[in-house]
Amino acid sequence: MPKVLLIADHDGSTLNAATAKAVACAASIPGAEIDVAIFAADGAAVAAQAADLQSVNRVLQIDHASNEHALAAVIAPQAAALASAYSHIFGSSSTFGKDLMPRIAALLDVNQVSDVMEVVSAHTFKRPIYAGNAILTVEAPADKPVVATVRIASYKAVAGGNSAAIEAIAVDAEIPEHTRFVELKAGDSERPDLQSASKVVSGGRALGSSENFDLIYKLADKMGAGVGASRAAVDAGYVPNEMQVGQTGKIIAPDLYIAIGISGAIQHLTGIKDAGTIVAINKDAEAPIFEIADIGLVGDLFKIIPELQELVG
Amino acid sequence: MDKILVGIKRVVDYNVRVRVKSDGSGVETDGVKMSINPFDEIALEEALRIKEQGDASEVVVVSVGSVEAQQQLRTALAMGADRAILVETAEPVDPLTGAKIFHALVEREQPGMVILGKQAIDNDNNQTGQMLAALWGRPQATFASEVVLNGDKATVTREVDVGLESIEIDLPAVITTDLRLNEPRYVKLPDIMKAKKKPLDQIPMADLGIEISAQLTEVAYEPPEERQKGIMVDDAAGLVAALKDKGLL
Lengths: 313, 249
Fold this sequence. Notes:
Largest interface: A-B, 88 and 83 residues
CATH superfamily of chain B: HUPs
CATH architecture of the largest domain in chain A: 3-Layer(aba) Sandwich
Helix content of chain A: 10-25%
Distance between the termini of chain B: 58 Å
Number of domains of chain B: 1
Largest sheet of chain A: 7 strands, parallel
Number of domains of chain A: 2
CATH superfamily of the largest domain in chain A: HUPs
Strand content of chain B: 25-35%
Shape of chain A: globular
CATH class of chain B: Alpha Beta
Distance between the termini of chain A: 53 Å
Radius of gyration of chain B: 21 Å
Oligomer: heterodimer
């Protein structure tokens, strides 16, 4: 029977929504038994949230002062020490999982399956490559543990209402001291989180300046939406990189995605193609974004955004 | 520090729209423009800047793959790297084998730092740097947007989902680059001529005593599902009406 160890993503007090989506992926492995591991300084609150998730069998709470900040070099040897009891070690494709999981894979002497978008069988998975221009089906060796990250935009979070057992355990592993946390500067937290927001408004290069990008913020705020940006807008310095949507930024799947002044380079499209409804507003009727948009509007964004703001209120 | 090792991967150029072969055996690469993986250019630029500010004495670029990768290594030499190593193999190299190859070169070369791109834009794996750090038993600072050296330590700012995280690492260490770390320089014509004289060593992969790791078997390639073409509306009012129609507003 497949046994999955899922490494939870959290900030010390709250379980990241990515974990509930990764559970959904793990649960799609036929017959899988899923344990969730919480590495924290004091993981009680996060463990309780994980125990609430459907399909979770057991929550392992590994409290250690070194686990206060999520450092891959610190967590990887502990996770690897737990791995022998499992056939699968999963994490999410967040920056936390992307940083940590390959380090675990190397300690277990296996390659990682990055960005699982579909489970075909216990050892066979689909994943996007070339910025999503191709989907590759890969088969992992059956006699080795499968280490994988889950492309969270491909999954819906499992529901709550479970009460899985929580076990506080100690792990025997050598914890290095060569890597130390200094600080975390979180971005603007008043808006809905880009990766879990049901609506997202994104701006591109056509906004022309960071001042003009305020138009996007205002419209998003009126709609209760998260705010994203194309790589071109990030490169031009209009907005910080944590807002970047696409191959090299965040992959998102909101119910509604509104792309304003974004031409739709393939690198951007790969970040949004799981969105429910895509709206494109662009002055160039030939822009590639219109090829995948569900609703398109050709026109001047500086005229259209204020009109929209009036109408959506 | 003495030297910095930089990884250079030959990949299908950023601007090429990649297509899956009709028989599902791979993607079309015949006659397609090949380039240095963009994140690797950023890695090299960072190494060159560290050398130029006097904190490193040599920048060594390393590629793993077919002899064609010489082209990308020559470009890297023209950008300013001092010498190049090509670990030659005709087989596709998975991230773990790649990390083992870099680890073997790290033992030979004893660099103070290894800088790699955070991912290659062909297989989008995002694994090799983290794996190398694990095998080497050294720190990793992934997705770097700023690197500040301080003696035998470095403070690295990392691009994480919620913002910017800063960590301090002891050297030697592995750093992987994010897009905003720097803007790579352009290659000048005289430098291309000069690069032809710089040393480029070729080492057959077998000479490093590394076997290909437990690979993932590639079962099939397929094109992504296409989205249905949508509707066009005339103005903001039309858009709002269409969204209300779908229950999205």
